[in-house]
Amino acid sequence: MQFEPVIGLEVHVQLDTKSKIFCSCSTKFGAEANNHVCPVCMGLPGSMPVLNKEVVNQAIRAGLALGCDIQRVSTFDRKNYFYPDLPTAYQKTQMYHPICIGGTLTIETEKGERRTINLTRIHIEEDAGKLVHGESIGASDSSYVDLNRSSMPLIEIVSNPEMHTAEEARLYMQKLRTILLYAGVSDCNMEEGSMRCDANISIRPVGETKLGTRVEIKNMNSFRNVQRAVEYEIKRQEKVLREGGSLRQETRLWDNDKQITFPMRSKEDAHDYRYFPDPDLLPLVVESDLIESLRKGLPEMPDSRKARFIDQYGLPKQDAELLSSERSYADYYEEALKTLNSPKPVANWIMSEVLRVVNDRACGIYETGITPANLALLVQSVEDGTISGKQGKELFQDMLASGRSPIDIIKEKGLAQVSDTGALEAIVKSVIEANPAEAERFKQGDKKLVGFFVGQIMKASQGKANPKLVNDILMKVLS
Amino acid sequence: MDILKLSLAELKSALDSKKVTALEVVNLYLDRIEKHDKDIKAFLHVAADSARAEAKRYDDMRAKGEMVPPCAGIPIALKDLIVTKDMPTTCASLMLKDYYSAFDAKIVEELKEAGYIILGKLNMDQFAMGSSGETSYFQKTKNPWDLTKVPGGSSSGSAAAVAAHLVPVAIGSDTGGSIRQPAGYCGVVGLKPTYGRVSRRGAVAYSSSLDQLGPIAKTMEDAAFLMDTLSQHDELDPTSCAQVPDSFHKNLNANIKGLRLGLPKNYLTDDVDPEVKSAVLAAVEVYKNLGAEIVEIEMPHADVGISVYQMIANAEVSSNLAKFDGIEFGYRADTNDLNKIYSQTRGEALGVEVKKRIILGTYILQIDQYEEFYVRAMKIRSLIRQDYDNAFKKCDLIIGPTSSTPAFDFGGKSRTPMEMYLNDLYTVSLNLNGSCGVSIPCGFTKVGMPIGLQLQGDMYAEQTLFNAAHAYQNATDWHKREIL
Amino acid sequence: MNNRVTREALMKVSALAKIDLNEHEIAQYIDDLNAIVDYATKLQAVDVAGISPMVSPLIGQNIPLREDIVRPSLSQADVLKEASQTEAGHFRVPRTVEG
Q1: Measured between alpha carbons, how far is C7 from C10 in angstroms, rounded to an integer?
Q2: ipTM for the whole complex
Q3: Angle at the Cα of A160 (from A155 to A162), degrees rounded to 5?
Q4: Is B179:B192 a contact under the CB 8 Å cutoff?
Q5: Domain check: are A449 and A384 in the same one?
Q6: Host domain of residue A323
Q7: Whether residue A425 sits in one domain with residue A397
Q8: Is the domain of A321 the same as that of A304?
Q9: Does the beta-carbon distance from A142 to C93 stay under 8 Å?
Q10: Which of B178, B318, B403, B439 is catalytic?
Q11: Which of A1, B101, B158, B369 fits a disulfide with B83 by CB distance 3.0 to 4.6 angstroms?
Q12: Are the Cβ atoms of A89 and B319 closer than 8 angstroms?
């Protein structure tokens, strides 16, 4: 029997704000334990939540970037459960009336197949604190609660269950990250937990329309892990069914060391979250003016920017894809084009040189020390023959190290090529005179010797001769 | 000059004109607490040292001719669910024994800024759940008029302390009648302001959509005086009222000619004690003589108010009190099993009534009960709001009893499970509506127990409500009767 | 009285609410809850067709929003001061996961 996997993703994204969702504690990552905590986010008796305006704006931006219907009225509910990282013993979330409904996200598989995944909803909620276990803090039989993360602002983006491969799940996550980074909604840092993914996976016989038993997978903290965990889980479920077993509706965790999923051992026994409207939090009413002004503030989204790069700059699809894959890359590229309108050479330099540094250093494209304008000037110097391509690459290294303008470095180091025809002719002549035998053979048709002469001329000019001009003069003088 | 008989405004003048010092006033009350509270048991904590120090500080400032806050030196005391940094806040529960909050409630800030001196914290039903004061973990407050009777609840200590002149004015909280009912039982004035009028920040939540803080005072005039300090907008309470009134006290006007008082049809049922009934009807006559017009109104859903209240209040309780789990603050059971930390802590440190309400609330919020009980209750709450809206088209205020009986004996209302809850019949609907109401003394039973008259107003209709209560007190002497 | 709240139902709810009950409480709560639930059958008689639920008295009001400004948090000492068990700047609980 052939099985069809059905995958839906629930992605939690930490919104980029200065303060927490319901209080004024800082959201900065990496503070000492329990240093960004106040009566509200630690649930002290008598404390009350006040919603952060920017959280609402960010959630709407995310919704707009993903083509959702922004709801004029949404409400907050309490999800009740006990866990040591949840000091109020209820999470404030939007169960019954979320802020965004619908929306889509389009992915393109490696085979080039485009698929549009529908979103169910996006809702606003608060994060829980962090539990650290065992000896890293104290005793091995203990867990330790740090509430710095408690009440961090999140949105949860829920997709319809309509992906069918692990690759699609990974592509969905990557595309979501690209879009949210474009919209400036989150830093989407999976390692720091600002983007987290739970996958709901079931399988069913091909042709069956009813969904199979759903298993939820947690703890996949990279794109690669999403793909691997989903792949593993699909195979596991197929094996169980093929062997005549049945699946349990359960939550499983991805073990990255063993590359397997395993059932979560939960100390929570009964489950009934008893959702009900939070009486402290009145309905959130969003005026259409706000939605429109946020829409206007959004940048061009990646798909549209990619298409424009192909149309407007004549870039090949791959180049357009890479340069639009991060908003910062695309911004960098277009800034460089303002200084030098040579779309393909500038694209080449960014893709081959700048992005290599970005990858090596794992830094942002604006953090290499080379500004878009300086990169453009470098490309221009190579394009107009001021320096050679090889010199250009050396100059790039200099610029990386010093952060200086290529013009200054060229001047200071005297890198500019000798393009003065008179001066070059003199050098060419002196080289021919010094090698009469070779000159004779060349004249008789041994054209391979051109390389020898160019080499000698470059040596005589200490590498500064413009190779193209040298070639022209050589041909003229020898023929 | 008998300080005990001064209104708050008169006390302020006496202090401002240095006819009396703040220390003399504070000492007078501290001495009375020392002398009488061993019988009445209204206070859970008396902050004698800090109160005297504050009083001295204000006296020094006045002596030097420095500016002092407007109410500098007026003593006050707080129901023990209002969190304080430098006094314990227990909610009368073992769960919060010796608990010191890391922040002061908004009204504590407001009171201190205005110069009030906080004498201490007052006993209450545990987590404000009760109508007799009997559910306190620590002690049972007595009714000063008869120590064998309950003071009412849940603001038992607040009402008893004011009635016994242990403090001139106190703060209570009212979720289903917890200010008005004990005020009625103790012969004092108890005001439940409009929901959101007084900041709830720092009041340990019972039911967030019903809770409201308010004054318990000797007179309506004093309550209005205190409300001028308490009616502030709080940006950190998301339900705080944004409109701040000019001054209720200055605008008090005892001329109520033409005021329309609504008397609900079939309101004074046979369950109402005959003495209460006749006192209320006599009060109606007083109002007629003052020029008020009595109109008949209908409150079709009054009889389901108790049930609606139980569903809504307890659903919220089950969530609001879940934070008392032994981890970040409060009592923790002696066990090293995580699930036991929760269940044993809560089993041991929460009172029987509190646990019962949490269990009930948890029951009705379960996924298979939610629609039938909770959602239905919220819909009927809408109908109750409609009842009030319709009533207030015909009248300005609704008149009736605060409770169907006067204060009862200790243990006197625990025969059947519903008996105690039905005691709140006349008060809960107002909390469901969210508007303001007051209980004022309107008579005494033959055995000398006070009877409360309840006036209910519309949302933000405090001034109308205050004027009417003030006019009644100008025309009657019930509030002046002394405990022998 | 229809005894809708059974002992089993009560035990499930006390587990959800995480409250240990003694036998005396169990017996009392079964009675009390049934009395309350019984009394609440009055609610079933009310016609609520087309009526929306009232969550808060502040009908028609919007949630107030706060500017995104960071203000000082509590000190770590103040955060931890009322907890019964703390260690190295954290609240301590028995270990929640294996390993």
Answers
A1: 5
A2: 0.96
A3: 140
A4: yes
A5: no
A6: 300-413
A7: no
A8: yes
A9: yes
A10: B178
A11: B101
A12: yes
